[in-house]
Write a structure and sequence with these properties.
Layout: H1 4-25, H2 34-52, H3 59-68, H4 80-89, H5 98-153, H6 163-175, E1 180-188, H7 191-198, H8 200-217, E2 223-228, E3 231-238, H9 240-253, E4 258-260, E5 263-265, E6 269-276, H10 284-300, E7 305-307, H11 320-323, E8 326-328, H12 329-332
């Protein structure tokens, strides 16, 4: 049969845990009922009481109980102050008794351990938060670097490759001696009249649409470059006969007028091609000059057509009309 001392201790535990549960549960967002908290706290107090009355002095066990206060379901609550008031304010046993004497030491070790667990959890959360912030910053820097790299190698208006990227890609293509390198230089016919007649805004619309069409019809490995103004350069690893096919595709893509905010605008181009055979040292400047001469052959012959050339033409070429085959749009289509 319980003694008066046992009854007083039980009542004291109940009062302590009831107040503790009330202080923790209020506004904590815990889904467990307050009565369940009271049971959990009562069990913790009872374990600490057993430790206070046992031998040897149970520091490790008291600290283990304190660490449990940082675990579920308490891990999302802040209850260091309520736990401290509850445990240090609890006075079990008779004054001078073993339990009464040891209780404050046992309770203090439990509270210290709980506080350390909270600190470790806070540091871990801080590290995770810092790691997440660092990761976000790294992604932002990487995205910025990629954007700057893209802007440095692409035309701002059309988003096509610019001259520097074109030259680098041609150099890479030429490093593969098993394939030739083909270059097509495309110059829009009478583009100045478009700018003068419709305005530069419409001229930009035309350039953007032509860029889109070129990307759509070119083979997969083609580098499509806006070389400057109304000039475009296409570079691709190719066979000799591939260049004629691509050139005819370019002319066909420019047959339809470009729809602009000022209405349809007719477009056409003169195209010159140059080819560096496999295994031959390929110089970009020589290749471009050869394509440029062929393009002017096409333009001189009446525009809307393409002309073929090779990089190994003589340094002092014969008259353009005598050296380069000219293909008009009728042949191309």
């Amino acid at each position: 049969m319980p003694t008066d001392t046992d009854a007083r201790t039980t009542a004291a535990i109940a009062a302590t845990t009831r107040e503790w549960a009330r202080a923790v549960h209020s506004g904590s967002g815990l889904t467990v009922p307050k009565q369940h908290l009271e049971q959990l706290f009562a069990a913790i107090v009872a374990e600490l009481l057993d430790l206070a009355g046992g031998e040897p002095f149970p520091v490790a066990a008291a600290r283990a109980i304190g660490r449990r206060l940082a675990e579920a379901p308490f891990d999302r609550t802040r209850m260091l102050a309520p736990a401290t008031r509850a445990l240090l304010g609890f006075a079990p046993g008779e004054p001078g008794s073993l339990v009464g004497t040891r209780w404050s030491f046992v309770a203090s070790h439990a509270i210290d351990s709980y506080a350390e667990a909270l600190q470790q959890r806070a540091l871990a959360q801080q590290e995770r938060s810092l790691s997440e912030k660092v990761s976000v910053r790294v992604r932002e820097i990487t995205a910025l670097q990629n954007r700057l790299r893209h802007e440095a190698t692409h035309d701002a208006l059309t988003d096509l490759a610019n001259r520097s990227l074109l030259q680098e890609r041609v150099r890479q293509m030429a490093a593969d001696r098993s394939r030739g390198v083909g270059l097509l230089l495309l110059d829009l016919d009478d583009f100045k009249q478009i700018n003068d007649g419709f305005g530069h805004t419409v001229g930009d619309e035309v350039l953007v649409e032509i860029s889109r069409r070129l990307r759509a019809i070119c083979p997969e490995e083609t580098v499509v470059c806006r070389y400057g103004g109304d000039e475009f350069v296409l570079a691709l690893p190719a066979r000799r006969d591939t260049l004629s096919e691509v050139a005819m595709g370019v002319l066909a893509a420019l047959r339809d007028p470009v729809k602009t905010t000022s209405g349809p605008v007719p477009v056409s181009a003169s195209v010159g091609t140059a080819f560096c055979p496999p295994g031959r040292v390929c110089d970009f400047s020589d290749l471009l000059r050869s394509a440029d001469r062929a393009m002017y052959s096409a333009k001189t012959a009446g525009k809307r057509r393409f002309a073929l050339s090779e990089i190994d033409e003589e340094v002092e070429p014969a008259p353009l009309a005598d050296t380069r085959p000219i293909y008009d749009t009728a042949v191309a289509g």
